[in-house]
Design brief:
By secondary structure, the protein is an alpha/beta fold. About 40% of the residues lie in helices and about 20% in strands. It folds into two domains: about 200 residues, Isopropylmalate Dehydrogenase (3-Layer(aba) Sandwich), CATH 3.40.718; about 140 residues, Isopropylmalate Dehydrogenase (3-Layer(aba) Sandwich). It binds adenosine-5'-triphosphate. The site of adenosine-5'-triphosphate (ATP) has 16 residues, from loops.
């Protein structure tokens, strides 16, 4: 199973290389056969050559790889993020990664946040008119097709059912944004009828944000459009304890191709200092292992990363003094302690029974 690794910019170039040894160790121990190639797509390449996502990249990824592991895109030398849009939106649209899963992991449990990832206000429909160098008219259209909303809602409800969830909340703003808002409500209500295990509710995005911050415990599953989901995931990261903790998966349910990345950006303020928290990147790898059915390896990685976050190796954003490398050294040390018991396992990731070892 080949993975395309794109460290990207800023702290992406620190947290991604730091976490890869853990992936290799787990792959070897659990017999997962995961291999990867590193691609230097990002700001440096854009500034040197003008190329973001190279021609033919989408076809090659779809043919030769099962997933992308991305660090972050963003660079102060490119204030309009042109390269980031080219690469990230190119990957999302080119590979049809329309389901974005961003778990909000809290003390009481996990809230499964699903965000539509390709349309809405991020569809790129609009334009602007300038006079004498200043923009005088600016339009960004919110575009949704019934087809994508149906596919998205159906897939997410199915996932929530598989995960044993009982409640799902649609976040919208149909009182102020009525056209796409009502489309979402209509699809949500119709699709929900096929999932009697799930109790649905609908909330306006503004009051939802207020309620989530005051008390997140009633929520189990959340479905949101592109813009609302993006904002809610940052609120979720704040509830979790910081952007360094939030991980994500962007999935095409039809092909199963997926992209895994931390929610945080390139964080230029701390880039190069070696203190970026690799937690979100490592947890994105755990999502990748889960996605491909290697739940035992994912669970072990999560346990080791959580352990490191509570140890002396914790990075400054968690109140510790550790560096990115020290954090991952701690993860690797714990993995090495656990892995000898699991070295001989079958390809499905099923730990061998005692007699088989
Ligand atoms: P970009 O322009 O790429 O979005 P940004 O700095 O605007 O970068 P983020 O990278 O998402 O946005 O980060 C916001 C702040 O959160 C950073 O300035 C940094 O202080 C903190 N932060 C984000 N990720 C991490 C991390 N992995 N470890 C520690 N701090 C982080």
């Amino acid at each position: 199973m080949r993975i395309a690794v794109v460290p990207g910019d800023g702290i992406g170039k620190e947290v991604v290389p730091a976490t890869l040894p853990a992936l290799t160790a787990l792959s070897e121990a659990f017999g997962l056969g995961i291999d990867y190639d590193v691609f230097d797509w990002g700001a440096d390449q854009w500034l040197a050559t003008g190329v973001g996502l190279p021609p033919g990249a989408i076809d090659r990824l779809a043919r030769d790889y099962r997933a992308v592991f991305l660090g972050a895109l963003g660079d102060p030398r490119i204030p309009d993020m042109a390269h980031g849009r080219d690469i990230l939106l190119g990957l999302r649209r080119g590979l049809d990664l329309y389901v974005n899963y961003r778990p909000i992991v809290l003390e009481h449990g996990v809230i499964d946040l699903y965000r539509e990832n390709t349309q809405g206000l991020y569809a790129g429909v609009g334009g602007s008119i300038s006079r004498h160098g200043a923009v005088t008219v600016a339009i960004d259209e919110c575009v949704y097709t019934r087809e994508i909303v149906e596919h998205f809602v159906r897939h997410c409800l199915g996932r929530l059912r598989e995960q044993g969830r009982r409640k799902v909340t649609l976040v919208h703003k149909s009182n102020a944004v009525p056209n796409t808002g009502r489309l979402w409500q209509d699809v949500f209500r119709r699709e929900l009828a096929a999932f009697p295990e799930l109790t649905g509710s609908e909330e306006y995005v503004d009051s939802f944000c207020y309620n989530l911050v005051r008390d997140p415990t009633p929520y189990e599953g959340i479905l949101a459009s592109n813009l609302f989901g993006d904002i809610i995931s940052d609120i979720g990261a704040a509830l979790m304890g910081g952007l360094g903790l939030a991980s994500s998966a962007s999935i095409c349910p039809e092909t199963n191709f997926a992209l895994f990345e931390p929610v945080h950006g390139s964080a230029p303020d701390i880039a190069g200092k070696g203190t970026a928290n690799p937690y979100a990147a490592a947890m994105s790898l755990a999502l990748m292992l889960d996605h491909f059915g290697h739940g035992a390896a994912a669970g072990l990685l999560r346990a080791c990363v959580t352990g490191a976050a509570g140890s002396e190796a914790a990075t400054p954003d968690l109140g510790g003094k550790g560096t990115t490398q020290q954090f991952m050294d701690q993860v690797m040390a714990q993995l090495e302690r656990e892995l000898p018991n699991r070295r001989r396992v079958d390809v499905d990731g099923r730990p061998a029974a005692a007699g088989e070892l």
